[in-house]
Write a structure and sequence with these properties.
It holds the Pfam family PANTS-like. This protein has 109 residues and is mainly alpha-helical. It is 65% helix and 0% strand. It has one domain (6-97). It is built from 5 helices and no strands. It is flat, with a radius of gyration of 16 Å.
Length: 109
């Protein structure tokens, strides 16, 4: 069982994301985030979800990401990157600490 706490997981994810997105221009723009939301909402995606899982896909998280992206527009680019990295790191930390079908390995330090 993993002894990883949320704060440590967020710090690890932030470090990983800072390497993947070294400059403010590396974070996704609002247009691509909006495209993700639209692609989730289209009929093809919804029909596929109904076929596979028996229910429609919930696109609320993608819409929240789009609203978050719009809220970053008033910030300096480096602040935008920091806020985006922090939000994604928290999301990944929640995902890592929650139950998953991928609960096989612990991250090495």
């Amino acid at each position: 069982m993993s002894k990883l706490d949320f704060k440590t997981a967020v710090e690890q994810e932030e470090a990983r994301l800072r390497l993947l997105h070294p400059t403010p221009s590396d974070i996704p723009g609002c247009v691509s985030v909006f495209d993700d939301y639209i692609s989730c909402s289209v009929i093809r995606s919804q029909v596929k979800s109904i076929y596979r899982f028996g229910h429609r896909t919930n696109c609320d998280r993608k819409f929240e990401e789009f609203k978050f992206c719009l809220s970053l527009k008033i910030m300096h680019p480096e602040e935008q990157r920091d806020a985006w990295i922090r939000r994604r790191a928290e999301w990944w930390a929640h995902r890592r600490l929650g139950k998953s079908s991928e609960d096989v390995w612990d991250i090495r330090e």
